[in-house]
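Marked as duplicate of an earlier ticket. Keeping the data here for the record.
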Amino acid sequence: GEIMARGDVMSRKDREAHERRWEVVRQCLNSHDPIGLIAIGCPEDEYDPEVPGVLSAIRNAKDLHSLEQCIVTAFAVKFDRQTAMQFKGWKALAKELWDLSHSSAW
């Protein structure tokens, strides 16, 4: 396995939870397809660079509105604000992630 600094060691349970959450976020981003990349045939890992930022937003958001704003900002930085703002489903995407992250399955 990889050698990591003592403070960075993740238990198997934590690693499994992280992998499960990563997959949940990936599936949610793909199903909402905010930039339209999946619709034009891009691979299912196309939004993977955004997953860490979305996971961080989920961890840090105080409420649904702040989660939505963090996700929009992450996409606006990666693509551009005009492209990001063409998507009208940010609230629905954030709501799905908020609900998932507050469920017992998270």
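See parent ticket for discussion. The radius of gyration is 15 Å.
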